[in-house]
Design a protein that fits this description.
The protein is mainly alpha-helical. The chain has 6 helices and no strands. The longest helix is centred in the C-terminal third of the chain and has 49 residues, at about 110-160.
């Protein structure tokens, strides 16, 4: 299997994981397809950054940021809460493998490896959370700018 076919299969699996988790959390059916694409978009940002110049922290940060910003845009478009698109979008970024290895290493008595995996889990989870916080900040700034522009337009109209 060549690398392009493998990448396409990964993309399909990421899209299906977003839809599958959307089904598990009882997402409305009209939002499933978009939730899958949101998961794919966030994962693509993660994939590009981790394979070019970034490490685990920056790739997860920008993946989380992308999912957070996109979720707000989709939520406004679909007139639904953004959390409906946040949760399925995060599934591909969750550090499940590292968390499993942490528990496995603790159980096997390999504490040095366990703490190494644990630090990765904390680093990844923190990066994703920080990405969401920045996405929320970007949304608040956007709302404030829109509000200020509307006030400016109204004040100009009232002077005429």
């Amino acid at each position: 299997m060549n690398p392009i076919e493998f990448f396409i299969i990964k993309c399909i699996c990421v899209y299906l994981s977003g839809i599958g988790f959307g089904l598990i959390v009882n997402l409305p059916h009209k939002a499933l397809n978009i939730a899958g694409f949101n998961a794919l978009l966030g994962w693509l940002v993660y994939y590009v950054i981790i394979n070019t110049w970034g490490g685990l922290g920056s790739s997860n940060f920008f993946g989380g940021l992308c999912i957070g910003v996109t979720s707000v845009i989709i939520a406004r478009w679909k007139k639904m809460p953004s959390i409906l698109f946040d949760v399925p979008g995060l599934v591909p970024l969750v550090p499940g493998g590292q968390a499993y290895n942490t528990i496995k290493s603790f159980a096997m008595g390999n504490y040095q490896a366990a703490f190494s995996y644990l630090s990765e889990v904390i680093w990844i989870a923190g990066s994703i959370a920080l990405g969401f916080i920045v996405a929320e900040l970007v949304n608040k700034i956007r709302i404030k700018v829109e509000r200020d522009l509307k006030k400016l337009k109204r004040s100009r109209k009232s002077k005429i």
